[in-house]
């Protein structure tokens, strides 16, 4: 499992930023002219996704992070709903393909957030705010052990594969 020291390095945050930028560019299209409330809410919801990821990451506890991840997921749903409304409205047919891509992106970000939230819910880590020297050393020790076991397992699997290949090869007598 990767560890990130700042939210800007998170792939899901980067995907959320991309989603927001694409929504802002889409809503500059002339098809969205005179649809102020829709444009404003769509932009705000798309921006809310990355902002909630960032705020939750900076809060310092796993429970707070989880709360903000679910808020970000809710904003993804809001973006998808408004994009689908835009298609149903029919006045933005020139943008239907781009809207479809944005719906797929919002769905992807939402799924990433759900996966992250699921892994956090099953974690015994309470969050950065609760770490002390002893717990940091414990997590580091657990990480070293896990890495060692992963390397050992990979080496064992490679040896088994080499043995199987040697047995399958025709004998040179």
Key features of this structure:
de novo design (two linked rop proteins), 2 domains, 75% helix, 173 residues, mainly alpha
Polypeptide structure, described:
It is a single chain. The chain has 173 residues and is an all-alpha fold. It is built from 5 helices and no strands. The protein has helices spanning 11-26, 36-59, 62-89, 96-121, 133-168.
Shape: flat
The poorly predicted ranges are none
If helices are DSSP runs of H or I spanning 4 or more residues, what is the number of helices? 5
Mean pLDDT: 87
Query: Percent of residues in beta strands?
Result: under 5%
Domain unit count: 2
Give the CATH class of the largest domain: Mainly Alpha
Give the arrangement of secondary structure elements.
Layout: H1 11-26, H2 36-59, H3 62-89, H4 96-121, H5 133-168
Concise summary:
This protein is mostly helical. It has helices at 11-26, 36-59, 62-89, 96-121, 133-168. It has 2 domains: 7-130, 23S rRNA-intervening sequence (de novo design (two linked rop proteins)), CATH 1.20.1440.60; 132-173.
